[in-house]
Request: fold
Amino acid sequence: RIRDQLMVSYTPLVQQLRGMGKLVIAAINGAAAGAGMSLALACDLRIMSEQAFLMQAFSNIALIPDAGGTWLLARQVGYSRALQLAVEAERIPAATCLALGLTNKVVAAEALQAEALDWARRLAARPTGALALTKRAIAHAMEVGLNDALDYEGHLQQMASEGADFAE
Reply:
């Protein structure tokens, strides 16, 4: 059954990407279609080559977005745009992805790997504990109201202020 396959293969992977304490950067140099798009969206940051594209291809084969695609896409672009992208199932070129907020950067194909690694190195040189807590805070804020977000920020800020990076 397809549901069982999803629960065994994609669900744990998406949960791991979203729950990881470190930032995850997706470097996309071609097609990220169907579950590939969902996995790209599960990453925290995305960099695409100019030739790359995303695509919610599912409706072309009479299926619905899976691997977290409905949840991830709607949070990236909002309900109406997510629905449009899912039902039209067209290629979303890198430049359009940048305009929609589906990617953070677009670079030449030959520069993609170097740019992605440089970005990762620059982030790794920052206070990684605070970056991990920031990731947690923003993910939490996507699920709760303002008062809960404020409370959680206070909790995480206390943790950050007691860390070695802040003391340094």
